[in-house]
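hiii, so i know i said id send this last week but things got crazy w the move. better late than never?? heres the sequnce for the chain we talked about at the cafe, plus the structure i predicted for it. fair warning i was half asleep when i ran it
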Amino acid sequence: MSMTTYEMARVLEQLDESPEKIMFGKLLNELGNQSSERIKSAAKQVPVHVLRDLVYQFEQVIESRKSEQVESMAKDLAAQGISAEELLNYLNNK
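okay and structure toks below
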């Protein structure tokens, strides 16, 4: 039984730090470096239900990684001597 690329990607996604998972991450990163026209052209070859699932999975990852961004920003601000309270006051006054 052969697997589609998408099915294989889903299986590989479940593995921890395997070479396949690392390569899949590199593939996604390379896809992100492509022009919007090229991405749209490739996406037209994928069934809509698969695209919806991909979008859903990416949204889940984005949501889970927001805290990473907030933590990084907080560290950067703290390194510059800006407290969370000062930032909150600034944002409330804008």
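btw DSSP finds five helices and no strands in the chain. thought thatd interest u
miss u guys!!
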